[in-house]
Write a structure and sequence with these properties.
CATH topology: Udp-n-acetylmuramoylalanyl-d-glutamate--2,6- Diaminopimelate Ligase, Chain: A, domain 1
Structural class: alpha/beta
Strand content: 15-25%
Number of helices: 8
Shape: globular
Order of helices and strands: HHHEEHEEHEHEHH
CATH superfamily: NIF3 (NGG1p interacting factor 3)-like
Number of strands: 6
Distance between the termini: 22 Å
């Protein structure tokens, strides 16, 4: 299946560059850093650990806002409704942590940092009670939606730096 896909691309003279985890973690055009920038977070630093590397970023909004207002900001940023909100934390959000895609495995690390809201891509049934008992707000923005931010930022970077024409082909999965 992959060979056929590649043949179609290469036959049409289209280059393919694929990067998953490096694009999540990149400190300039990565998914997490880009989402933090788009959401207006300040003092952004890496957090969490995945195979010895930081797995996300954390930062602060200039001023605390109600969780519902922050969730609306996330929806505006992502261009779609969030998948789900587990509102078990503080009513006001200022400290925000982000790990795009499937970041549910970081819940315990998020709780240790005193995060007011955690934005990740997809939820995992097995962390629901942990999130509730730890008193966390978790916003699930969608795996696909949270992992396209870096692609858009990378395309813009390449266009500016090298004068390349880039096209983002949006193929949302609904997940």
């Amino acid at each position: 299946m992959h060979a056929e896909r590649f043949r179609c691309l290469f036959h049409a003279g289209i280059n393919l560059y694929a990067a998953h985890l490096p694009l999540d973690f990149h400190d300039e055009v990565g998914n997490n850093t880009t989402l933090a920038r788009w959401l207006g977070l300040e003092d952004v630093v890496p957090f969490g650990s995945y195979n010895g590397r930081p797995a996300g970023v954390t930062g602060s909004l200039p001023q605390a806002v109600p969780l519902e207002q922050f969730a609306a900001r996330v929806e505006e940023t992502l261009g779609q409704a969030v998948v789900r909100i587990w509102p078990f934390g503080p009513a006001l959000v200022q400290r925000v942590s982000i790990a795009s895609g499937g970041g549910s495995f970081l819940i315990d690390q998020v709780a240790e940092m005193g995060t007011d809201a955690y934005l990740t891509g997809e939820m995992s049934h097995n962390v629901y009670h942990m999130v509730r008992e730890l008193g966390l707000n978790v916003i699930y923005g969608g795996h696909y939606a949270t992992e396209t931010a870096g692609l858009k930022a990378l395309a813009e970077h390449l266009a500016v730096r090298f004068g390349l024409e880039t096209v983002f082909v949006d193929l949302p999965t609904g997940a």
